[in-house]
Amino acid sequence: MLEPHERFAILRLIQADRPTNRQTLQTACLYAAQVILAVLLVMEGYRLWGSPAGLWAVVSAILVVQPAMEQSIATSAVRIAANIIGGIAGILIGHFLGSGIWQFLLALVLVVFVCDLLKLDLGLRTACVSVAVIMLKSEGRVISTSQERMVAVIIGCVVALCVQLLAEWIRKKIGWRGPDMSAVMNPQSSAPHSNSG
Length: 197
Known about the structure:
The protein is mainly α. It has helices at 4-14, 22-49, 54-64, 69-97, 101-117, 124-136, 142-174, 181-185, 187-190. Helix 2 crosses helix 7 (142-174) and helix 4 crosses helix 6 (124-136). The radius of gyration is 20 Å and the shape is globular. The two termini are 38 Å apart.
């Protein structure tokens, strides 16, 4: 069991350094509405389409929706690029060498070095997860699994961006400025500067 002072130390590691106020609650409401709408659109689209790959579109939509539009565009670009890198590595290794454990590990190493060469640090983990999903859950269908996943990721990202564009349009139409994202996303800029040492 952790001592009380140890629990607080752990909380300081994981909690954002920001207040909870009206702006952050508005941001939370806006984010929740956007995530719900994006997920419902993706789930209904995949239900009508009859495809089981909708899970990856839902995951992508959730990961792409961000409090600020600029963040969503960057997040979706990173996610799409990372999944393409992971998908291509999984396809190439799986097609030419098979899909055993050593081939999977080789694909992971390949993805790490490709991401390093492309300076895609933010997409490294996603690319590695993409390889794992494609090669470990493909049951001999590496190429079709990776294609389904890449298409689903792109669909999820596009739906999330469209939902955010709609939200931005509605906010401007009704004249709601919305939360000040600079204060929420960068609390240090609004904090008073100290003159210590």
